[in-house]
Amino acid sequence: METKSVIIEGKEIELLRYRDKWVFPMFGVYEGRLGSLVALELYALENNTFEYYSRVTVHLEGRSTGCQFIDTNNNFEDILKWLEDNKFGELTGKKVNSGFCSYPELNFYKGENFWKYREISNALKEDLEGQRVREKKKLPSRSKKEKLKRKTPANYNKRER
Prior knowledge:
Helices cover about 15% and strands about 40% of the residues. It is α+β, with helices and mostly antiparallel strands. A hairpin with an 8-residue loop joins β3 (about 20-30) and β4. The termini are far apart. Residues about 135-160 have low confidence and may be disordered.
């Protein structure tokens, strides 16, 4: 699981690598629906701004508690392995057909990172699209002597020798 830390709204979060993109999995709910309401969209980081990338779940009838069907029709088939590898849930083995497509069911409640990222998603409260971020950078440690040499108004114009 490859990760990258960034700061959003003053909070440090980890982005995950999906294919060639750094993505944030944004969890929400399907409004006005009965049963499991888990909705998952991916937002990709492009030029320090988030852009909508893909909706991962599809809301169909017949799912179990804590589960949702995965849209392998509009996403690559490897999204299933990516979800399990990143501990967002476990495949149940159940599939439902709709039109000419078959959608596998994933139990999100069994995924430890589902709970973590759902909490972060709820804390962000806003749509990520267009949200600016800054990367977390580790600053080099300064010695005590360097810390004491900070410029003050009295020594701004003095040259260091």
